[in-house]
Amino acid sequence: MHFTSTRRLDGGVLEREFTLGEIPGILWTPAPAAASPSTPAPLILLGHPPLGLRRMYPRLVDRARRSAADGFATATIELPGSGDRPRRPAIEQARADLRRAMEAGEPVGDEIVDALVLPLVDEAVPEWRAALDALLSLPEIGGPVGYSGGVVSIGIRLAVVEPRIVAAGLFAGSLVPRAMFEEARRVTVPLHVLLQWDDEGNDRQAALDLFDAFGSEEKSLHANMGGHTGVPQFEGDAVARFFTRHLK
Questions:
Q1: Taking the alpha carbons of 218, 66, 80, 102 in that order, is the dihedral positive or negative?
Q2: pLDDT 10s digits, 168-204
C-alpha cells in the first residue's frame, strides 16, 4: 500500500488516497483522539457501484464522515474495470446488453446477469481481501470489520469467504446471479438490508427472495417507499446504530 495524498477534512477526519499495486483507493480515519496505535479504530469497508471512485466520491465521503463521527475508519477501492482501471471487454459487452434490454423494456436474462456480475465478483473480492490485509497492518486501524453497501453480490461473497468481516449492511438489488442465492444461504454474519420499494431498476420479489435466502440468524430488512436514490436520511442513523452495535 502506497499513500499518494493526504488531507484533513472537517472534524479532524484524515483522508488518504492510496494505491495497492495498481488499484486506487481511499482511506478515512477519525480524528487522532479516536484512532491511534493505542486506540485503533474498527474498520468499515465502503462498497459502491461500478461507476468510478471520482463519480461516487461525494456520497462516499459523506458516509465516511458519518462513520468517523462514530469512531470508525472507512476505506474503499476502485472496482475492476471502473474509473481509470483497464476496461474488461466482456463486462462492457454485458453492460451494453443490459442497457439494450432495459431500454427495450425486455426482461434481463440470466445470461446477461451472470456475464455482468460473476466476473466482477470473482475479481473484486480477492482485491478487497488484499486491501483488508494492508489496512489492518496500519497501527491506527484494528478489528472488527464491517462491509457496507455496494454491489450486493460482492457483499455476499465477502461475507462468506472473509472471516474478519463480522457484520454487513447491504443494499438490496435484483441483478443477482442464481449462483449467488446458494452463497447467500452460507452467510451467517448479522445483516442490515435496505430495500427501496419503488426502485425502478429492481425486481422487488427477487430482492425479497434474496433476503429470505440469507442464512444469518440476525437479519433485518428495512423497506422504504421511493426510488433507487430516495433512501430516507433516517436510514443512515439506523445503519450507524447497526455497526456500532456489532463493531464496538
A1: positive
A2: 999 987 789 999 999 999 999 999 999 888 887 778 8
**Average pLDDT taken over every residue of the chain:** 92
Q: Are 140 and 35 in contact (CB under 8 A)?
A: yes
| Domains delineated in the chain | 2-82+125-247 (3.40.50.1820)
- Dist CA 165 CA 132 (whole Å): 10
**Cα-to-chain-centroid distance, residue 198:** 21
Q: Could you tell me which of 137, 158, 138 has the C-alpha nearest to residue 146?
A: 158
Which triple of cell numbers denotes residue 144? 472488527
Instruction: Provide the H-helix boundaries in 15-109.
Output: 53-69, 89-103
Residue 72 pLDDT = 96
The H or E element containing residue 193 is strand 191-196
Specify the residue for cell string 457501484: 49
> pTM higher than 0.85, yes or no?
yes
Q: Angle, nearest 10°, between helix axes 234-247 and 53-69?
A: 60
Residues 165 and 146: beta-carbon distance below 8 Å: yes
**Burial of 118 by CB count in 10 Å (0-12 exposed, 13-18 middle, 19+ buried)?**
middle
Q: Which pairing describes strands 141-149 and 73-77: parallel, antiparallel, or unpaired?
A: unpaired
Q: List beta partners, residue 148.
A: 46, 169
